[in-house]
Amino acid sequence: MIGRIRDKNDIAAAIARDITAEHPDGAYVNLGIGQPTLVADHLPDDSGVVLHTENGMLNMGPAAHGDEVDPDLVNAGKVPVTELPGAAYFHHADSFAMMRGGHLDVCVLGAFQVSTAGDLANWHTGAPDAIPAVGGAMDLAIGAKRVWVMMTLFDKQGAPKLVPECTYPLTGLRCVERVYTDLGTFAVGPGGLQVLEVHGIDPDELARRLGLLDAVGERRT
Amino acid sequence: MTARICDGYDDAVAGTADGSTVLVGGFGMAGMPVDLIDALIRQGAADLTIVSNNAGNGDTGLAALLATGRVRKVICSFPRQADSWVFDDLYRSGRIELEVVPQGNLAERMRAAGAGIGAFYSPTAVGTPLAEGKEVREIDGRTYLLEYPIHGDLALIKAHTADRMGNLVYRRTARNFGPVMATAARTVAVQVDRVVETGALDPENVITPGIYVDRVVAAEQERAA
To answer: Global pTM?
Structure first.
């Protein structure tokens, strides 16, 4: 069954489902700025997931509205957020020790490109007039136990973002485990590319458009 | 030297020399020591190197300091933001130097400076353009880059409450780089919402011990009657 193409909320829901299913006892999770923050909206209240934000907080709550807005309480995207019972605050060196030290179970990041071997490019387009800005992306990419990417499978020009080799400047080497997209979910890494799910496109058509026909071996839908 | 409660923001940044490296706390505007930065603008030190997570937001705080043209170089993790137009213009016209450092390395390099560590190996940025020129070493099968400390001549920090010993308590995510920067600079100036009498802070809850703090200035000072 081909089904339909996933929108960003469908992708976020699939990530939330897998985080919960694969970490039944709860998990410490970092959601990157931008679309990955949508994953939080799909986590059940009893999931046991504790959200980490790089600017020094565990058990971050949803976005703040109205009277809840406090300029001293923001997420990594500088958006005002709330705290949940059991929250903890800590300084930046501790926050990144949590990443680098392998204490986070999952992080979900956006990407410009991911290679079939798991290389990640998500911080810089390489354009000569672009101002480079890395933030915490490189620390997260190599730090979390499992790095998942949430992105569209093709860019606006129709070029695949899941590629044999990244052409954009790298964020991290061999760090991505799984890629969630509008058209499918993929495992990447030392074993190469594996298609886990396909949505809204014929699997053979997907392989052809990706230009990775030979690489698409075992297929599970 | 124990911490000194200053008469005002200008007093807290007095004597800053041209060419200083200034560590500026804050993550966006959360924890940004805006009043101390304004005082540094009035003080007039030039040829500065600024170390901060971002490179200014809007037209106030760090952005206002950059706009004076007295900053030679910015060391930060994330300069480009929706409202970083002051920095963007300076950078695009070649009037400011930029060293981009991954956020965790930025924090850890200052932590190392404050802790007397000569250098350390970090796995962050291996295989990326930011690894260029750095010593690479394999330890137990994992690849690392050699990272050096970042020392400040001056740190400007915002905390919530200080006591007269300079012990600090922060508020929520405004803590961010404050405790690390407080350890890493020769002179540490802190703006707080209020100063309380010595003994009024629960010692178990002190985040930055006063040993790291040199100058404190309060928006509203609580004085003994």
So the answer is: 0.95
